[in-house]
Structures are given as C-alpha cells and as structure tokens.
User: Fold this.
Amino acid sequence: MSNVCSILLFLSVLLLPLPSESQSISGPEVKLLNNELLVNFSLGLQDKSLEGIRNGVDKELRFYVDLFRVWKIWPDEFVLGKSYVKTLKVDPIKKEYVATSNDGSVLIQRRFRSFESMLDWTVSFRDLKLTNIRELEPGQYFVRITVESKIRKLPPVIGYLFVFMSENEFRLLKDSAFFTLEGGR
Assistant:
C-alpha cells in the first residue's frame, strides 16, 4: 500500500506544472467615453512559452473580463463579465501564423505575416467595450482580469486519480483601481 502511495506522489510531482512567475498582466486601465466603459490590458508571456509557440506548440488562452461592485461590509458583487478564448497556431516550416478569437458568439480567424503581429493581436485588448454605464447603479466599481492557459490534453484517468492536480499551465488575476459611477440610471 505504501509503495502505491509513494508512486502516486512521485507521479503527481512530475506532472505538476512549474510555477510561472514571468507571465504578467499590464493594466487593466478603465476609461469612460460617451457613457461606455472601456477596458485596456495586455498579457506578457514568458520566453519559454513564446519559444514553444514559435516551434509549433498550439496555445489556448482564456481571458475573463469581469466587473465588480465594491461593498464595504459584504463581499464584492459580480455585476457582469465577458470571456474570450484565443488560440495561437504556428507552422514554423511554412511560416504560417494563425490566431483565432472566440467570445461565445463570434469566431474570428486571422492570418498574420509575422509572429510578433499575431502575438500583439492575441494578447492585447484595446478599448474593449464592457458595458454602457447608464445600465449600472451608482457606486464604486473595479474590473478584474483573469487569464488562464490550459495544460495540453491529459488523459482523463490522470484527472480522476489526481484531483488536486491543476489543469492550468498558469492562471493570473489582476484588478483595476476602484472607480466611482454616479447617477447611472
């Protein structure tokens, strides 16, 4: 019995992803323009991830942009959110760079001439329309950005055996500064 436990422990240590400290989110910056709440942010990937993508390893990134209302005594209230799934595919032999973006209703696929332009389009969000502020109650709010990168497909048996094992290569969270909306409705 102890041999089985030690083998399972050894396998779980081997399969755990290494903590990645070099990934970072710059921003989020929130601005109000013509009663629209706009968000700007970008993801910085570590060199190891970039090298893997350049060598043909497909990468799927999930971006969650959530708006929260701040409460003093109660936990912060989730107001609304948007999610995006972006994939990067590189064929190093043909020098093809393809990225897709899916927000649940619209799928966009683009081809690029260079790796850098594909990466910039995939990991940067500029003037992302979150909501119209007239639909919100007056109060103090903040935007939370969450980015996840899933580990390549693992056999389902491993997930059942190692419940504590993470399915994410990395998961980052970053909050914007608080901002106040007055007289929205």
User: Anything to note?
Assistant: The longest strand covers residues 77-91. Residues 14 and 167 are 14 Å apart (CA to CA). Residues 13-21 have pLDDT under 50 and may be disordered. The beta strands are 24-33, 36-44, 59-69, 77-91, 96-102, 107-112, 124-132, 139-150, 168-175, 179-181.
